[in-house]
Amino acid sequence: TLTAERGASGTDSRDHVPLLDALRDAIGAAYVLTDAQDLATRLVEDRGLRSGTAIALLRPGSTEEVATCLRLCQTAKVPVTPQGGNTGLAGGGVPDGGIILTTDRLNRIRQVDPTNATMTVEAGCILANIQAAADEVDALFPLSLASEGSCQIGGNLSTNAGGTAVLRYGNTRDLVLGVEVVLPDGRVLNDLNGLRKNNTGYDLKNLFIGAEGTLGIITAAVIKLFPKPTARATALVACTGPDPALALYARMRSQTADTLSTFEYIDRLGLQMVVDHAPGCSDPMVEVHPAYCLIELTGNGAQADLDARLEGALEAAFEAEEIIDAVIGASEAQKDALWALRENLSEAQKPEGASIKHDVSVPVSRVADFIKVATQACMDHMPGLRPCPFGHFGDGNLHFNLSRPVDMADADFLAEYGAFNRIVHDIVHEMGGSFSAEHGIGTFKRAELRRYKDPVALELMEQLKAVLDPGQMLNPGKVL
Ligand code: FAD
């Protein structure tokens, strides 16, 4: 029986009875959901910034069922929005009418091959479960995000997610050898190879990685495993600002070589917000400092060797006045407590009122300049503003977040969203950077894509979309 009502999801499923009946026949009635209650959380973006409408939520259980769903939807000319964990931060998973297709039932680990150092996973596997499965065979899958308990590998691939381990292991794109993708017309592209060498024409998998569900639905992938580090050495250090932080980064790279796996920057305001608002978090240093870096080395040798390497580099950094204070995690619990200061940053900003966020990247050599120039420009635009830059300094990606002045109303501050975007993104562009480092385009940054992307690149993107999805069936209105 059809239970959705007009207005509940904003779209009436009664207009699509033949399609819904065919979908029920194909994947089972229990997996074609039309109740407003079942759809509610699927219609809204993670932070509640954007919401949409949909006729139904489909939960196919196999690649073949995904293919059948897309074929039926294409015939009925009803667009499909793919969804994983719905943790994306660019609005790419918010439906605009049509059907939502979730991969949550495609959650099998198809194969683990420790000798090839690969794992074949279905798109709906939750990232934390993949990490745990790698751990079981004494291996590491290094992709790590604060949303790892709910985001899915298909979503990670489709957004080319970054996270805290990019410095050493690369983005999601660098962690994948092969993919299986269902195209909008229902054809299945089988490029599910576990090869590290395969020069047989165009690298098609990279078309779908980072495409945010606009070209096909990823149903499985072969991902790379790495040796599991046996030791980690973690420190929070204080600096007088971004310039010494950059000098420190260069030193750490040369003195700790390939053991450097984390180099995160935290502005004082950000640390203060965490101390004020995150339960259990406290400032591990006695003095208050302008800026901090969270540094971690990981390796497979003895713990004592890694500790000595970290301490040696930090001693030299003290002498060179790149750092003015440091706390080294002496136990696993202390290391976790230092990490908590970084991991709670986004959440700790919320009680401070509205914030305007920028997920940007510049060449690492320009990161310090960027922080200084963008902070000054934004302060000039709005005196009393509280800039809170933090993030993946070591790979050039900063979350350049701006918290509103203490005594300003949220709405008045958010009215300046466009103005701040222009200031920050123009500076990023001038420095050869990107206005979207790891969160993608979705709907939030489409205008910025038009403004900053090379026109020929945009034209090629449009031509590719037209070839693969001529009917605009898959995630219409996203990215392009
Ligand atoms: P969804 O949000 O469901 O979808 C994201 C996009 O991919 C949508 O456009 C959707 O249509 C498409 N899509 C999803 N699955 C498929 C599929 N199988 N085939 C084709 N298209 C698909 N991101 C980072 O990069 N780095 C971070 O450090 C980071 N930290 C975060 C911290 C928090 C607390 C939160 C809430 C988010 C964070 N994110 C981060 C953003 C988000 O977690 C990532 O973008 C993640 O990769 C999205 O995965 P998902 O399964 O939730 O995808």
Task: Please provide a written account of the structure.
The protein is of the alpha+beta class and 480 residues long. The protein has four domains: 13-102, Uridine Diphospho-n-acetylenolpyruvylglucosamine Reductase, domain 2 (2-Layer Sandwich); 109-227, Uridine Diphospho-n-acetylenolpyruvylglucosamine Reductase, domain 3; 231-347, Alpha-Beta Plaits, CATH 3.30.70; 353-437, Alpha-Beta Plaits. It contains 17 helices and 19 strands. It has helices at residues 17-27, 36-39, 63-76, 127-136, 153-159, 166-169, 205-208, 242-256, 268-277, 303-319, 332-343, 345-349, 367-381, 410-414, 417-430, 446-452, 455-468; strands spanning 32-33, 56-58, 80-83, 99-102, 109-113, 118-122, 139-140, 176-182, 188-191, 217-224, 226-227, 231-239, 260-267, 291-299, 325-328, 355-356, 359-361, 386-392, 397-403. Strands 12, 13, 14, 15, 16, 17, 18 and 19 form an eight-stranded antiparallel beta sheet that branches. A hairpin with a 5-residue loop joins strand 8 and strand 9 (188-191). Helix 1 runs antiparallel to helix 3, helix 8 (242-256) packs across helix 10 and helix 8 packs antiparallel against helix 13. The radius of gyration is 23 Å and the shape is globular. Residues 1-10 have low confidence and may be disordered. The structure holds flavin-adenine dinucleotide. Flavin-adenine dinucleotide binds next to strand 3, helix 5 and strand 10.
